[in-house]
Design brief:
By secondary structure, the protein is an alpha+beta fold. It is 40% helix and 22% strand. It is built from seven helices and eleven strands. A hairpin with a 2-residue loop joins strand 6 and strand 7. Helix 1 runs antiparallel to helix 4 and helix 6 packs antiparallel against helix 7.
Length: 246
């Protein structure tokens, strides 16, 4: 959508209808089903929360079903609200791009950016040193993003210009700045435990020391940027010549 302040790219009205209409309906259906079948479910030994279903089965109908349906509707509304907040919205003009998610804005100036691209399901903005200013998961259409950025003169790239520079991370291998290996170890654990905030923060820490990381197939790949400082190579240790014992 084009406006006086720039071009806005966001999710369509269909997505909102699906979330705000579909999620509460699904919640209501699930709640009604659980409420009406509480007695039967309580007889299944493998179902968790047996005590809850046994307690529900003792309550009079149709009150249980009505109450469970109401709880399902509320759960659906909460899920729809969370989904709406999680959607990424991008507004771009000739001077800056504003990325909005969870009620927070991220502003990026045009002069900071060397390339804009979509990498899989992520919007990426690269700086002049090859570092990542932004990497945000997005369901926005690539064509819409391309059109918006190009319309305002931003340097769009069809693929990552540094793709060939990535190397598979293996703990302990040389070639990384000091501290990067420990950060990548911590990030690997955070990814395994799905601690998304930690994953994002560790990505930022790696970026500060000149390391860009990307995930592919459950593994971490890395490359260096222009600001990376590698440890100085240790000079070879001088060896004394063996004394002549002749």
């Amino acid at each position: 959508m084009a406006g006086r302040s720039g071009t806005r790219v966001g999710g369509g009205a269909t997505d909102l209808v699906v979330m705000w209409g579909g999620f509460p309906l699904l919640g209501a259906g699930a709640g009604a089903l659980l409420g009406s079948a509480a007695g039967w479910i309580s007889d299944l030994p493998w179902v968790p929360l047996q005590g809850l279903f046994e307690a529900l089965s003792r309550l009079p109908q149709p009150h249980v079903t009505i109450g469970a349906t109401s709880v399902g509707v509320v759960a659906g509304l909460l899920l729809a609200g969370a989904g709406t907040a999680e959607r990424l919205t991008v507004t771009v003009d000739g001077q800056r791009a504003v990325l909005r998610r969870d009620g927070r804005n991220r502003d990026v100036s045009r002069h900071e950016v060397r390339a804009v691209l979509v990498d899989g399901r992520e919007l990426v903005l690269l700086d002049t040193d090859g570092g990542e200013l932004v990497r945000e998961t997005s369901d926005l259409a690539r064509d819409r993003l391309r059109s918006a950025f190009r319309a305002h003169g931003w340097p769009w790239a069809e693929e990552d210009p540094h793709r060939a520079a990535y190397r598979l991370w293996v703990a302990g291998l040389p070639g990384l700045p000091e501290g990067a290996d420990a950060l990548l170890r911590a990030r690997e654990r955070a990814v395994e435990k799905d601690r998304r905030d930690d994953v994002r923060e560790l990505r930022r820490e790696l970026g500060r020391i000149g390391v860009v990381v990307r995930d592919e197939g459950g593994r971490q790949y890395w490359r260096l940027t222009g600001r990376a400082v590698l440890p100085a190579a240790e000079p070879p240790t001088a060896t004394r010549p063996e004394p002549d014992r002749r």
